[in-house]
Amino acid sequence: MKVAHFTGLRELKICEVPEPKLNQPEAVLLRIDRVGVCGSDVHYYTHGRIGQQIVEYPATLGHECSGTVVEVGAAVKRLAPGDRVAVDPAISCGSCDQCRAGRVHTCRNLKFMGSPQQAPGAVAEYYVMPAENCLPIPDSISLDQAALVETLSIGLHAVRLGEVYPAARIAVLGAGPIGLSVLLCAKASAPCTVYMTDLLDERLQVARQCGADWTGSARDDDVAASIAAQEPSGLDLVFECSGDPACIDQAQQLLTPGGTLILVGIPANTVQVSFDIHTMRTKELTFKNVRRQQGCVAPVIRLIGQRQIDPNPLLTHRFPLAEIREAFELVAGYRDGVVKAVLDVSSAP
Ligand SMILES: [Zn+2]
Ligand SMILES: [Zn+2]
């Protein structure tokens, strides 16, 4: 089968390797149909590491995928060959203190698809996955949309942590795939007002298509002042989705006393960020951190299936596997209005 091997910074090639064998009764063999290119994949591609996670070459990448079941293990009852699935890429151990406490996303022994030294990347024609990580999708959901389910599930997890309630006044700082996922999930959860900022006008346009009530360019304007002019008493919730430490400062200014900042974005080049202790203290702000998601994959499939979330505005580009380099370079360069580029691995409709 074909698999993408990353061999150095900005270097990759498509190689021919043996297909993986189904070797566990609780696993399934999947044909991988689509793989979304994630900001984290691109960061590994251009920098070779994220924090303490360091790539060893040759590496495989990718975790946002949809597929079709080819073969099921003897103990698998819930899936059958031919089922189309969205994949939850986080394989938890089920037995550590975190798993036993229901926090499978902070499992001590987590194996995440395409993370260095954890589990192989999804950019391959076939993949063996625990059946419980494969969630069937209805006919109304396309394989492209299913490749967005993991990204959307992070948005839903953030929205649940933020406890979005009716009439909440919200800012989402950063309109990349994660910020847009927060927007879609917030709007699907409760009627609320969402202010959205980004450096890229194309992304703000997508944000308006996805239901943002107001958008402002962080490049040209003092967006915090513009939002404050419309919401003089401040916002209830701010979702920081840009990873830019400057936005953390902005968020603290935007929040109303008693408000909550939800940190979703991953600062790529910084280990430490600072907080204004007096703003935090006098406004009695709450900060919450998001580690990917927990239990939100099935609810997102339901929300897309019921048309409460329309992820199509995020699906801006699709490339055949042979053009994987173009896909990664496009996302790395934020070119051509890209929000989510999807690799079409199987050519299945
Ligand atoms: Zn991702
Ligand atoms: Zn565990």
Annotation field: number of helices: 11
Helix content: 25-40%
| Strand percentage | 25-35%
Mean pLDDT level? 96
Strands, total number? 19
Oligomer: single chain
Radius of gyration, in Å, reads 20 Å
What form results from the Cα inertia axes? globular
Elements, N to C (H/E):
EEEHEEEEEHEEEHHEHEHEHEHEHEHEHE
Largest sheet: 7 strands, mixed
C-alpha termini separation = 20 Å
**Class from helix and strand fractions:** alpha/beta
Question: Low-confidence segments, ≥5 residues, pLDDT <50?
Answer: none
Associated small molecules: zinc ion
Overall description:
This protein is of the alpha/beta class and 349 residues long. It contains eleven helices and 19 strands. Strands 3, 6, 7, 10, 11, 18 and 19 form a seven-stranded mixed beta sheet that branches. Strands 14-13-12-15-16-17 form a six-stranded parallel beta sheet, sandwiched between helices. α9 links the parallel β16 and β17. Bound molecules: zinc ion (2 copies). One zinc ion binds next to loops.
